Amino acid sequence: MQPLETAEAEINERRLLRGSQSYEELRDSFRWPRPARVNLAHDVCDSWAKAAPSRTAIVDLRGETPHAVSYGALRHLSCQVEAWLRSQGVRRGDRVGVLLSQGPLCAAAHIAAWRMGAVSVPLFKLFRHDALQSRLTDSGAQVAVTDAEGAAMLAPFDLALLTENALPAPGDWPAADTGPDDPAVIIYTSGTTGSPKGALHGHRLLAGHLPGVEMSHDRLGVDGDVLWTPADWAWIGGLFDVAMPGLYLGVPVVAARMARFDVDECLRIIRQGAVKNVFFPPTALRMLKAEGARVDGLRSVASGGEPLGAEMLAWGREALGVGINEFYGQTECNMVASACGALFAPRPGCIGKPAPGFRIGVIDDAGLETTGEGDVAIARGAGSMMLEYWNNPQETERKFRGDWLVTGDRGRWEDGYLRFVGRDDDVITSAGYRIGPAEIEDCLLTHPGVATVGVVGKPDALRTEIVKAYVVLKPGAQVAADALQDWVRKRLAGYSYPREISFLDALPMTVTGKVIRKDLRALAAREHSAVKPTAETTENT
């Protein structure tokens, strides 16, 4: 067993932003680690299981009493999953679905896939049939690791399933000989056209997250740090902003996924798990603020998804006892910029500064950097940048402009800080989720009474935006708004159904027959600012 002081030295060695340098010194001296061979399972689990098997990896708060899961136990569990995967004929490069919320088995399933060189595909428990089908079909996953609830959800699909009640005896295999760019995980992201796209990432993904994660938690890895987020581990924010960085750095990760965010439950989790470091999505912060909550004992709070205003940052310092560090990224290239109170003062309305190792540009249509407002873009070669969109070379090509990955957001520089101006695409940001309108439109169009539809985000004080659908019915059709809401809710996901539906005689269209979403967004904005909406509307909260 590794002595405590040796383990702490190992943590410090693993931190990419160690030492006492200023931000400028860290930025200028930073170099990406470029090992010839790297395997995520070894990095986040096996190396610790060998050096410090009894060290706490996960604090499981899902039961009546807290349960500490050691790295040795986590490896044992992952080897059980791997034994089953091998019995199903899973080989290197095969895709493995993971339909689990926060918990040891969720982490173990990903680790098992990575150890054998397979590719994990996180799936969200709020997905419904069509959302699951599109991701399973596109990824080609033939097996999945889940629980009893997930098994019922996956029953309509031709998959081999492993649940926690059917774990076999573990094997003992070394980690596959994988390199930084060998595929490790496909994380599906919302898009403005067509089905959600699968961002394929390699085994270097975790290292690419570390600079931004460490910044956002004021140099994560201090003795006593304990990480938690209410965000699900099915998303890149939960899986690679919290769970895997924590496991890699030897920082205990609390597993306590809530079915819905609840302020009292959140406070209980922080207290019972002795949480010191939290990633709060903006909606969670707004709910805490609305209920007058106060949290003691935190060392760092990070937030990302949409910008926070000066009022929210001031409230955070008072109610949470620490400054809130905002960070920025997306599924295709995450944690590229962050605030860091330990290194520099925050600037309200700005995302922060580039994380060491990332070159962020504000570019024009020709791909040239500009001093004014432009498209926020990330230079090729960044550690957390995707390899490609899975089986989608056309969309991969469209994502780049020369040597820049274009985020779809607009911004400008202010004294070294990146100010977020707005999105240049149609993705809807609601309660921390990024929702693509195309998938919802396609779903509504399958209803026999719907002729055409346009989906946009409508401003909302709590959720940032809500999903708003403008529907044209077929002649003679009589369909209630709540029926269309249920139609989407049962097929896609509980968070992406239209919370408001307005029925119109016609939609604004281009000459080629495409819905002009910017006109619908303008209409939604006018409705938001009006005392009484002018269209027939229903809203479910």
TrEMBL record:
Keywords: ATP-binding, Ligase, Nucleotide-binding
The AMP-binding enzyme C-terminal domain, residue ranges: 439-514
A Pfam cross-reference name: AMP-binding
Domain AMP-dependent synthetase/ligase: 47-390
A GO BP annotation: acyl-CoA metabolic process
GO molecular function, one term: ATP binding
Superkingdom of this protein's organism: Bacteria
Coiled coil: none
Similarity-based family: Belongs to the ATP-dependent AMP-binding enzyme family.
PANTHER family xref list: ACYL-COA SYNTHETASE MEDIUM CHAIN FAMILY MEMBER 3, ACYL-COENZYME A SYNTHETASE
Protein name: Acetyl-CoA synthetase
